[in-house]
Input
Amino acid sequence: MADRDLRTEQELATIRIWLIETYGIEASLSPLQGEHDLNYRVSAADGQEYLLKLHAAGDADELEMQIAVLEHIAAKDSGLPISRTFCDRSGGVTSKIELRGSRTARLLAWLPGDIWAKAPLRHMASAESLGRLLAGLDRGLEDFSHAGAKRLYAWDIGRADMHACHVELIDGADKRGAVQAILEHFSSTVLPRLASCPKQVIHNDANDYNVLLDKDGVVSGLLDFGDMVETWRVIEIAVASAYALIGSPDPVGTVAALAGAYHQVNLLSEAEVDLVFDLVKTRYAVSMCMAAKQIRDNPENTYLLVSQEDVWRELNRLQGENRAIAIARIRDACGFAPIPHAAAVVRWLEKNAHDFAPIVRPSVKKPKVMVFDFSAAGPEAARWSSLDAAEAEARIAGKIGSEGAAFGIGLYGEDRGIYQSDAYETAIEGARRSVHLGVDIFAPAGEPVSAPFAGKVAYIHDDAVAFGFGPTVLLEHEVEGGLRFWTLYGHLSRNSVAKLAKGQAIARGEVFAAFGSADENGNWAPHLHFQIVTDHLGLAGQMHGVGVRDQWQVWREVSPDPSVVLGLSVPVSVIVPRDKAFLVRERHRRIGRSLSIAYSATPLKIVGGEGAYLIDEDGTRWLDMVNNVCHVGHCHPRVVKAAQTQMQRLNTNSRYLHDSLVEYSRRLAAQFPDPLNVCFFVNSGSEANDLAIRLARAYTGNRDIITVDHAYHGHLSSLIDVSPYKFAGKGGEGQALHVKVAEMPDLYRGRYRYGDADAGRKYAEDVRNQVAALAADGRRPALFFSEGILGTGGQLSLPERYLREAYAHVRAAGGLCLADEVQVGFGRVGSHMWAHELQGVVPDIVTMGKPIGNGHPMAAVVTTEAIAASFANGMEYFNTFGGNPVSAEIGLAVLDVIRDERLMNHCRVVGDRLMDGARTLAGKHAIIGDVRGHGLFNGIELVRNRETLEPAARELDFVIAEMKRKHRILLSSEGPHHNVLKVKPPAPFSAEDCDRFLDALDDTLQRLSV
Output
């Protein structure tokens, strides 16, 4: 055995004995790396794991700080994955040990996971989880102070300027030059801006050997608080990012992900965010200086070399990134505008657009234009790619001529496949610039180019390479308030550009250049590339004309949509499709988070629909079994045609006479018996139910409402009040004084159950009780709300005679009765047009929504002439969009399709097939407790025990997720216990669809029971 190995074994034996004596722990030991301290993994005989740190003699304040910070965080009970300290037998948090001199020992909890540098799985989510951890830690340290943290510390990159004297120790002129430039930029630019940023104690060393990851690549622990220092908070992000990006295919993306996640937990200022990129490079520069100095002083310490081989490579990668784009991406990740002044530029353009001069063909007042599709996914993509410049020019000119157009247009935001040269590559592996940042205007070579507004020549560049920009000019525009931006003109003629000089003033409408021919414009068909530029990214005349699709939110602010300048009669831009992760992020930022996302763990991006199917971005067809809105089928051609035809002709409000509105009111009222013959038209079921309350109060003179427990009738304030599903749930404000809640008539788990022939009357007694409670206070009901089948109650079919008895109690007290058909109307129940007809009742008011327009936002109220007359009290009721001609035509088309395609009978036949099949499955799978419903409005209730009826909510979650994942069937849950499988597909749901669902449900329940 070598002397060194023998010494190690002897030291381990010494420590094992010491552990027994000091902590009462018998254990095996594994040495770990460390720069100053001796570190060991302690595996105790009882299975517990610990980290033993043996600190060399040194700064007492530093060690006390490490102890104090763990106690500080532990006292806050933050749940952060950091070590906790174990006391020795005497109760002390530190002990003494003699090992290579006197040392101070600490025993800490062992944190599970692999160190970042050696973890098998690392991805963007790893960086995000690290950002969140550090943000939580820094929030916990905001009120922490310690003398040990107030040191002048070489690893504090806020003091990077102290390393300028070490640059000369770095090997290699290129390395020295890069580090020198970074440190000079730090001193001149970064340090003065840091002065406005917050300072506190930070960890300061979340390197790839101090961060632990679990098997999924999520941070599971943070080690080693020995580098803590009081400095600027943002340095925490920079240090962590410098290590997190090592080996990442997108280094700036990794920095942005970490910073963005940090910001979600611990808000950063814009000033801090703007400095992150420069500070990451500063960390590398400091690391290279420190390594050069320490290796010179102590060449035998190999720990100093642990990460240095990565530093220069990663710094080189960052040096290859465009700094302005990098900062913009980090700003975007933190929720700030990528280009701070871009919005102001767009506002100025929109405000002043009326005064802009045409760029081409100024004599044509309203030019007709030919729009070309050059997108990579376009129908002629292959054809365009195969043409040379002359062939493309001829084809473009031919199409423009055949259309009688003044010129042609290539679209802004188009993702094109024609940019194939190396010039379009980026520093990110696999990412190319392919999205068009300007508008192409096609006309013959020599076509004059005019300035839309005054400016001056800022940059001139001749990009004289194949498929480049050719001669290019950037005009600079400075407007009120010192706001500055540029317009870019590419593919110009060389002769016209030769006449320009930098700084030359260009007046509004002045011709200053001309279109170039293919032999001088980069070998393209003659055209002008016109682009707005809010930040030329330091590229000046070599500004990019194409951006990166996955960074589009940044590039569209660098170069906003130029439509506002051109003012043409056709769209000249397209929406750039984005991935699901980005869409989720943007929804959370720009749409209220109270709007949930279906299947949020694995959301769908739906781009099309047909019949009972939804179609995602990849063309996958998903059987939609929860969409009773598109009642006659997604994108039914008859409904779509009706909307398109009327929209092309007229859409206005209902104050004008229009045949369609009158015809639709007649057709809709004809679906009900007398005296239900007066219609009101609105835009949603919520509006319909709110109007119904107003009608009832006007007619009865009463204000109180009776509703059924766990019901939901809409999102307006008036309807939240009558929706126990909302007001009694999370975030609800409780029951309003004017609302009474009747017992939910649940034949499966309620007081009166299947087999009780009198259950309907018994449940209706509670409605009578609510009427009596009102009477005891000298009040009477205005309205009783109920659906014909209780949706949010769990797809509950009502007991026989329930509504008849309930209506009688309410009417006897002078109240009105409402049937809410928003969910269940229009033939869905199969045997009848309306669910309330199952109960043999005629309501006083019926409300409709969802299926009425097959996805178009419309709704209606039908009531009696007497009730309607009572509402005409002098206060006009007018709904801007309710009953508009387009809605009326759509409503008529829906009624026609229901009639002509016999959809009501279809719902009955297929619905019976579905429920018969589900009941057969119930004989096979005990978890199915009940199958209920009518037509294609069904509920399958899952229970863990058919005797106790314990809800199987967790199991239903599994069923819904697996039906989606494995079978591409979309379902949802319902009911007070969230254990009812809700079934309400579009009415064209076929027998084959039904059998597919039943087979898939059988398979999923079989796997659930394994």
Summary: Residues 61 and 996 are 70 Å apart (CA to CA). The longest strand covers residues 455-463. The chain has a mean pLDDT of 94.
